[in-house]
């Protein structure tokens, strides 16, 4: 197996890399690593103590690469077909902007504020703080979704006429939002709601959502 991904399958950043791999038709092995109790050998290849890390065994050591954005860019250059980054320089830069938006502000809001409270805390045998979740859903989520609603409008994809790293990065964050029992309110954000449903229906996303959903449903019900 030439490619190995280290990380937990419910992580949005691990899923991001797995969708890239699926869209490019690449075989890989997923080795489960919890960011909360990683083995010592994992810390040697993940200086920021985060998942995922990619190992390309076709290369001589050191052959590991941390960070989902760095991994995705590497896979794009090593396996350029099908392209997941626009060829036009400006459009590529816009795709990277949306990737950054998803990986930072969206991740920092949906992750700790909703997914961590309702799913990860249950995994750690802790009780969620629903008042904190309610505050995030009321105060922090709407401005982000307002921005994305205006950006996506009636378009199929965020950048140009192609499915790209922008859509992968956005889509994976909304998977965790839904795993936590929430959906994009169609009445308030119809374009964003339609977009998320279409992205999640892609085979690369659907297979992973179906794999992960029983885990998250079980945690929410615990």
Q: Which structural category do the helix and sheet elements fall into?
A: alpha+beta
Tell me the Rg in angstroms.
Answer: 17 Å
The fraction of residues assigned to DSSP E strands is 5-15%
Order of helices and strands: EHEHEEHHHHHH
Task: Describe the sheet with the most strands.
Answer: 4 strands, mixed
What is the topology, as strand order, of the major beta sheet?
Answer: 2-1-3-4
Mean pLDDT: 96
**How many angstroms separate the termini?**
36 Å
Shape, per Cα inertia axes: globular
Number of helical segments with 4 or more residues: 8
Poorly predicted regions: none
In percent, how helical is the residue content? 55-70%
> What is the count of β-strands?
4
Verbal overview:
With 222 residues, the chain is of the alpha+beta class. The chain contains 8 helices and 4 strands, in the order βαβαββαααααα. The chain has a 4-stranded mixed sheet with strand order 2-1-3-4, covered by helices on one side. The radius of gyration is 17 Å and the shape is globular. The model has no long low-confidence stretch (mean pLDDT 96).
Give a topology summary:
Blueprint: E1 3-6, H1 12-23, E2 29-31, H2 40-45, E3 53-56, E4 64-66, H3 68-78, H4 89-123, H5 130-152, H6 165-179, H7 190-201, H8 203-221
Parallel strand pairs: 1-2
Antiparallel strand pairs: 1-3, 3-4
Helix pairs in contact: 1-3, 1-6, 4-5, 4-6, 5-7, 6-8
């Amino acid at each position: 197996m030439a490619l190995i991904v280290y990380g937990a399958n419910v992580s949005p950043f691990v899923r991001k890399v797995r969708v890239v791999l699926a869209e490019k038709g690449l075989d890989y092995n997923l080795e489960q690593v919890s960011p909360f109790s990683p083995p010592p050998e994992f810390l040697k290849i993940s200086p920021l103590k985060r998942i995922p890390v990619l190992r390309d065994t076709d290369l001589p050591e050191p052959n590991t690469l941390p960070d989902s954005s760095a991994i995705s860019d590497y896979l794009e250059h090593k396996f350029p077909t099908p392209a997941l980054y626009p060829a036009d320089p400006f459009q590529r830069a816009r795709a990277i902007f949306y990737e950054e938006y998803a990986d930072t502000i969206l991740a920092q809001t949906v992750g700790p504020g909703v997914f961590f409270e309702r799913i990860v805390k249950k995994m750690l045998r802790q009780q969620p703080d629903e008042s904190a979740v309610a505050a995030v859903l009321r105060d922090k989520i709407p401005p982000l979704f307002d921005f994305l609603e205006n950006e996506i409008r009636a378009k199929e994809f965020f950048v140009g006429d192609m499915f790209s790293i922008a859509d992968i990065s956005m889509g994976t964050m909304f998977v965790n939002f839904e795993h936590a029992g929430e959906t994009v309110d169609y009445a308030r954000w119809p374009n964003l709601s339609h977009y998320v449903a279409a992205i999640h229906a892609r085979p690369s996303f659907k297979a992973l959502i179906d794999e992960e959903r029983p885990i998250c449903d079980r945690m929410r019900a615990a």
